[in-house]
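A reminder from the course coordinator: this example appears on the midterm review sheet, so study it carefully.

Given structure:
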């Protein structure tokens, strides 16, 4: 998917900070809920950080962005169900 413009003036709001590890045998979906909540998947190859302040990823393998944003028009894009 294409990620929305997250610059402060865009009106786009990060609702959930989520990513999925796509390394074989893992597949964990991890979420960072607070600024200093550093979450790591079971195999250790993907970490997400930043909560709703910023999306930080550290990875050593394939992964998929599953974050959800609220757009200026009120609609939501992304999210773990897509
Ligand atoms: Zn993993």
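Designed residues:
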């Amino acid at each position: 998917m294409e990620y929305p413009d997250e610059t402060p003036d865009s009106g786009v709001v990060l609702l959930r900070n989520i990513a999925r590890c796509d390394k074989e045998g893992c597949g964990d979906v991890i979420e960072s809920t607070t600024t200093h909540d550093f979450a790591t998947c079971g195999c250790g190859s993907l970490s997400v950080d930043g909560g709703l302040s910023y999306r930080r990823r550290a990875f050593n393998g394939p992964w998929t962005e599953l974050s959800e944003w609220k757009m200026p028009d009120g609609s939501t894009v992304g999210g773990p169900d897509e």
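Strands lie at 13-21, 29-32, 39-40, 46-49, 56-59, 63-65, 68-70, 76-78. The two ends are 10 Å apart (CA to CA).
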